[in-house]
Backbone:
């Protein structure tokens, strides 16, 4: 596409989205409707009205496409949504909202500014994640998300606050008796592989094909591959009729169908039926966006994840089958098997009216509504794909959702446009939230354990992950690797069967000992032991998942995010030879014997009884074996009672150093190998503050 | 002297001293006398019997002249004396002392070992502080000190525990009536200069002349020069007769003659007369080392410093003159005026009997007993001379005495041998202690304020002294100087009248701003302000005394000592332009106005209200003036409430950095000069642990 076409197409896309968003707000009957909250968990709609415009300003500023703010006061007011983290949020903030007219005027100013950028700003292709113009696409897609979520807020608003609009009319529901609704059925899905992810976000989007060329949120990049076992899935989304059986069976009252979190929500909300169902004297109605209609029994039920999961538990009980929600991977199996393309007919992109449609309207392969109609809940908490990077100008879009509390919803709904309607897209919501979302169920094995997706933001743990596996600072080489190298060199000519890395922290030295020096073999078996279960867990995670993510403090509470993989570190092969255990260096279990090498790096000045450790360690090492100790000798009473310090005090009138003490404790069973050497190390605390220390390394050979 | 002569002379000297020490202990009547303490403040004599031998072993080990210990158990037991820091020490430690015979045998083993070293160890001249053989001289001189102090313990022992020996007989006192003792008189001493100190300890001792060639304790090295005003001094030491007038006048009962410390001691000890005076029915006797004799009224009285000072206060009252103890410098004036040489006849070096002699026996110039007879108390607490360094193998000989609580005693006594009898020597005792010591008095102006001599061992203060004035680490240039250089460069072409260094800590930047860039002028006036009075005091001390000493942590509680001088730093001239004040950056006094430059280095992330500081600082700076800020932005709630952090958090959905905040606060009144730059700094915590940070420096010009 040439530049002129790009500008033209983009402008048209922008205007369409921007104007359509305002059009949606025409469903608010009065100005008052903007200021009254529809639900307590969210701002009133006036916020969302201004928010998407403010978002354009913020991102275009960061991308340096505009030189200054348009309305600093509005851009403060409309910047941040309410934290939807809790259902017991009683936010009563007294916001000083501007008038609707003022916000409309503001939106026009923003529209003009964005138009000016698209029309006049310097363009340098290709379009990509790294191109400043990505911010324009981001603004548009962000507004499309809010188009959908605002439509839900409108749907949740009191009826007298909303008004139907001709451009926003629902589909006319043909009345169907509850009993006449087509029965659902299970369809077998064979085992197969799925690949998710758009790969490297910095690759040239225009050079890619298909969806890779389109805008993507950061959570879509990277890669995930899974071999999905066979399962069966409900042919259709669960309809209101199918769900009624659960309601009538007392599903909302029977605690056994609800897990702990779901039960907590259900009791708090006093939920007794799906939120958009309206109890009537003679049955049920359904609240659509701007009106109530007699219950369309053949339309998909709309519930939160807790309700969907409870239905599955009930269904499992009544059928005796392992009924549950699908995983994200299983949904992709349906997608891939159903031959869906952007042209596949579906109830989406506002192409067929502003509501759901019957669950048996849009066939896609052997299923209905694999995409479109309403979103479908999965049981998979969203996690970052391998290679995930946060986009620098919106780094808190995805990362806060990687907290195991946001479940993926797939497929899109009737109002999902743009990115939302793509295979690659990955949206997630808190399990207690409502959207235009329902579910299908599957019968299959219990899904694999959810990917551990959190960013370790235990500050100390993150510091150590960076220290062991991250970058170097001040040209100081990686310390745990340096210690391993020195140790491996000391082992030349000796048998290398078993090594113990005591005080291993997050395990770098253990991995290096198993890997060995370049061109040489490593140890046959390495045990890493640390007193801290947290440290051991991270090392285990790296082996088990092949990936660890952590958040480093940059400045104050601002963080940046890192990802380390076993593969990039070159430890994939050797990790099978390494085991990590929690343990106490001053009280090692009996089975720690017969080591050819024991490494205790930066350990002794952190023990509560270092003398005991030194006096007993020889029993763990074979004759001729090696002990490597490193320490900066930073004795601190918070770790070691002063009476237990090995050295660093005057004894009998003379300076008695820790090195003196090492000789005193070890010389009976060990002879020193070589002279003590200095090994520096740097631990990053913030982007500007580091601990820079110099450990002394001593090497000892176990006497025969 | 050739090598053979050296070995022979040294061996002879060693044997003489070593055997004489044992001979002294022959004054103990029984083995029991070794184990019973003579005074509560000291070990029993068995300790001192073994201690001097153990000292040889310890120092020869450190000097690597012997390869191993002779008796590790004894060397632990005999290593450290009781801390004589308090008169209320009720040490009841239950030591498992060896027998006298065992210690005698041990001493013989040590004698043989030292003999072997002197005879056979490799010799590489010249003899000097840095030569390992210095340890041999040190052992000998150490034993000579204990010869004297043990003789005092013997003198303090119960009479039935001691026995006179023919080789240790006192001088026969000719009986003199109290009234017949020659009256003391004041002798005028003109104003004059004194120079003390043996200079650089690493200079070649053999190349020097006179005393400089001899062994010296570390406190003798360095240099001190003083211009001493005229005064008059008592011709003779105060005799027992002269002191009796004080006793009879009720001097011990009248509190007004005693300062607070002296009064505390006097009450605790219930002292009513000098400690060696023995009350008899018909008068007084005097306890000598091993016997009591009728009071020799014409011998010098022996008292502690408190008693001597109280006498002076009484004497001042009765005479109306400013009577006081001499200063060390005043004693040196007497010494230099009296033409004393090593050959001058005096009651010292055991040359004239094992006791004092009459105060009118040894004339030296216009005085008697400038040297010899008994030590004479001064009112000067011992302090390190400029250029002082602790000797690495005995670094706690002098330094613990630099605590303002150890007063110098000069001149030596009848038993003072070796180093003790030299002009250069500087011995000091706690003011409540007894030795063979008395005093003369002077009449003169109040002495100059005692030299501040302590080692700042407030760890943070010492860290900052090193950070500002000490050595560089990891090749990172001195930070406060780098900040001053950048600031001075920003001032080029601008008037440089007044500068404010706010958050100056210990003042390096202030000094550099006053000094200016090489070849250029500095500021006419620099004010350094810090919230911490401790930091300001150290900067003041450096200006006032020209010297600051501090103790750095090496490892655990082991320290090493540093000294910084204004002269070596090159700040002598510019310091007159600098003033240091305690103050609060968030609440500066009104008079802080009209600055051409304000530097706030590593300040803002340590303020409780940094925004206030930034918003008001422009009022302090002239139009066109410069503001320089540096910070690593390490926001911590312990310094700054989170609500007051300038940046380092998300604001309105976006990352908001401290740099963003600086622009927001300053842009109204300042324009940025240049781009932000990174300036690294390193703060040493121990010999192996450092904080290594990178501050961001921004430069701002006050708008006109």
Residues:
């Amino acid at each position: 596409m040439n530049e002129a076409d790009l500008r033209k197409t983009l402008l048209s896309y922008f205007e369409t989205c921007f104007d359509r968003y305002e059009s949606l707000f025409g469903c608010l009957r009065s100005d008052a409707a903007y200021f009254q909250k529809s639900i307590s968990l969210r701002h009133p709609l006036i916020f969302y009205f201004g928010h998407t415009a403010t978002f354009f300003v913020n991102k275009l500023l960061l991308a340096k496409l505009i030189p200054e703010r348009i309305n600093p006061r509005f851009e403060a007011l409309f910047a941040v949504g309410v934290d939807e983290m809790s259902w017991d949020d009683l936010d009563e903030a007294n916001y000083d909202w501007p008038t609707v007219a003022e916000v409309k005027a503001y939106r026009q100013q923003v529209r003009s500014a964005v138009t000016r950028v698209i029309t006049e700003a310097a363009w340098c292709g290709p379009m990509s994640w790294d191109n400043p113009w990505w911010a324009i696409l981001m603004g548009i897609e962000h507004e499309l998300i809010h188009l959908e979520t605002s439509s839900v807020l409108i749907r949740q608003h009191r009826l007298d606050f909303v008004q139907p609009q001709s451009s926003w009319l629902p589909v006319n529901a043909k009345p169907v008796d509850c009993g006449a609704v087509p029965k659902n059925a299970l369809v077998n899905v064979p085992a197969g592989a799925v690949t998710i992810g758009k790969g490297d976000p910095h690759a040239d989007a225009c050079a890619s094909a298909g969806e890779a060329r389109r805008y993507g949120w950061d959570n879509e990049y990277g890669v995930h591959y899974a071999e999905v076992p066979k399962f069966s899935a409900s042919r259709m989304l669960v309809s209101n009729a199918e769900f009624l059986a659960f309601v009538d069976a007392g599903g909302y009252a029977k605690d056994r169908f609800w897990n702990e979190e779901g039960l907590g929500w259900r009791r708090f909300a006093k939920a007794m039926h799906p939120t958009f169902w309206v109890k009537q004297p003679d049955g049920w109605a359904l609240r659509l966006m701007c009106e109530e209609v007699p219950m369309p029994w053949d339309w998909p039920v709309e519930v939160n994840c807790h309700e969907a999961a409870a239905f599955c538990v009930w269904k499992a009980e009544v059928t005796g089958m392992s009924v549950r929600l699908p995983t994200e991977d299983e949904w992709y199996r349906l997608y891939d098997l159903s031959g869906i393309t952007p042209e596949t007919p579906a109830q989406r992109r506002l192409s067929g009216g502003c509501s759901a449609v019957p669950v048996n309207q849009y066939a896609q392969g052997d299923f209905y509504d694999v995409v479109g109609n309403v979103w479908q809940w999965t049981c998979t908490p969203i996690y970052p794909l391998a290679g995930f990077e946060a986009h620098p100008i919106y780094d808190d879009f995805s990362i806060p959702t990687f907290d195991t509390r946001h479940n993926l919803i797939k497929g899109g709904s009737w109002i999902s446009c743009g990115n939302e309607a793509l295979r690659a897209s990955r949206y997630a919501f808190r399990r207690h939230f409502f959207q235009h979302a329902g579910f299908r169920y599957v019968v299959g094995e219990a899904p694999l354990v959810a990917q551990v997706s959190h960013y370790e933001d235990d500050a100390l743990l993150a510091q150590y992950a960076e220290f062991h596996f991250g970058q170097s600072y001040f040209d100081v080489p990686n310390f745990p690797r340096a210690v391993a190298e020195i140790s491996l060199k000391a082992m030349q000519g000796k048998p290398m069967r078993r090594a113990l890395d005591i005080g291993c922290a997050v395990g770098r030295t253990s991995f290096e000992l198993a890997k060995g020096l370049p061109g040489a073999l490593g140890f046959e078996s390495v045990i890493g032991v640390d007193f801290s279960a947290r440290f051991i867990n991270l090392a285990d995670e790296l082996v088990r998942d092949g990936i660890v993510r952590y958040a480093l403090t940059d400045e104050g509470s601002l963080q940046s995010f890192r990802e380390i993989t076993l593969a990039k570190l070159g430890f994939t092969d050797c990790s099978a030879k390494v085991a990590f255990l929690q343990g106490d260096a001053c009280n090692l279990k009996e089975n720690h014997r017969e080591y050819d090498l024991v490494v205790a790096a930066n350990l002794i000045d952190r023990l509560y009884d270092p003398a005991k450790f030194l006096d007993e360690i020889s029993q763990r090492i074979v004759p001729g074996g090696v002990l490597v100790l490193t320490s900066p000798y930073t004795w601190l009473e918070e770790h070691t009672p002063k009476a237990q310090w090995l050295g660093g005090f005057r004894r009998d009138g003379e300076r008695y150093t820790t090195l003196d003490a090492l000789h005193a404790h070890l010389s009976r069973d060990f002879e020193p190998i070589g002279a003590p050497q200095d090994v520096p190390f740097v631990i990053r605390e913030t982007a500007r503050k580091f601990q820079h220390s110099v450990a002394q390394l001593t090497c000892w050979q176990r006497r025969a």
Chain A touches chain B at residues 55, 58, 62, 75-76, 79-80, 395-396, 474, 554-558, 632-635, 645, 647-650, 652-655, 657-658, 682, 685-686, 688-696 (CB under 8 Å).
